[in-house]
Amino acid sequence: IGFNRRYAPSFVEMLSRIRSGQIGDVLHVEATHSGPTGYSLDAGSWRSTRAEAPAGGMTARGIHTLDGMIQIAGLVSSVYAFSDKRKLPANIDMDDTTSMLMKFANGATGSLSTVFVTPDLYRMHVFGSKGWIEMRGDTELIARGLQGQPERITLPAADKEKAELEAFADAVEAKNNFVVPAEEAVNGVAVLEAIEVSAKKGKPIQIK
After folding, report:
1. pTM of the model as a whole
2. Which of 82, 54, 65, 83 is nearest to 6 (CA)?
3. Are β-strands 97-104 and 109-115 bridged in parallel, bridged antiparallel, or unpaired?
4. Rounded mean pLDDT of 29-44?
5. Nearest-CA neighbor of 29 among 121, 106, 98, 118?
6. Vertex 157, ends 153 and 161: CA angle to 5°?
7. Pairing state of beta strands 121-128 and 131-136?
8. Helices and strands, number each (H, E), in the chain
9. Sign of CA dihedral 60, 65, 68, 69
């Protein structure tokens, strides 16, 4: 549950704005967490096998963004996934292009993609009944209401890992729950497992 990207300045600010009602009710979340990591994989390493790294780039990248989507929209109730090997060499036994459609228990929908053989892009766009907000990377945000021009926000960089460790230590000292609730961590793992099953079977999978 070491989801350091929950402490990215752009995500913290985006979540604060969403929870204060600035974009209204969350209706849909779309995201991608992609990059060229697949080209640097070594054959036989745990990150380059389907058994240890299912669903392409999900275990290295997409799982972080999925966690953010769960924190924003709640638990996922079903997933429909597509996952293919398009560009990785024959000795790397994993997919490199994975995309998913999701339904959340509260009725919101989501789409997530992770491409392991393309330039870096970390993006999340949340659509609400009163506006939308988009984050690109750790320090950039764009927000827009129903009227007016988009607002562009640039935030100072922060040490995500330090912030996470300090939050964990503070929770231990105060005997409070950690920022990642157990039910959200379990739901994220269940979704990851369902993505692999859905891609193989070619149909939506319900999350129990």
Report:
1. 0.92
2. 65
3. antiparallel
4. 94
5. 106
6. 130
7. antiparallel
8. 4, 9
9. negative
Closest CA to 79 of 181, 202, 182: 202
Q: Name the residue among 53, 58, 75, 68 with its Cα closest to residue 208.
A: 75
**What does the pLDDT average to over 157-173?**
92
Name the phi and psi angles at 177, rounded to 5.
-70, 145
Q: Tell me the one-letter amino acid at 74.
A: G
> Given phi > 0 = left and psi -120 to 50 = alpha, else beta, which region is 167?
alpha
Query: What is the arithmetic mean of pLDDT over 58-67?
Result: 93
Q: How far apart are CA 123 and CA 30, in angstroms?
A: 8
From start to end of the chain, where are the E strands? Answer: 26-34, 76-84, 97-104, 109-115, 121-128, 131-136, 140-145, 151-154, 205-206
> Which run of H or E residues covers position 191?
helix 182-201
Rounded CA-CA distance 163/168 in Å is: 9
Q: Which two tokens stand for residue 29?
A: 């979340």
CA gap 20, 78 in Å, rounded: 27
CB 13 within 8 Å of CB 155: yes
| Assigned token pair, 41 | 């994989």
| Dist. CA 8–CA 160, nearest whole Å | 6
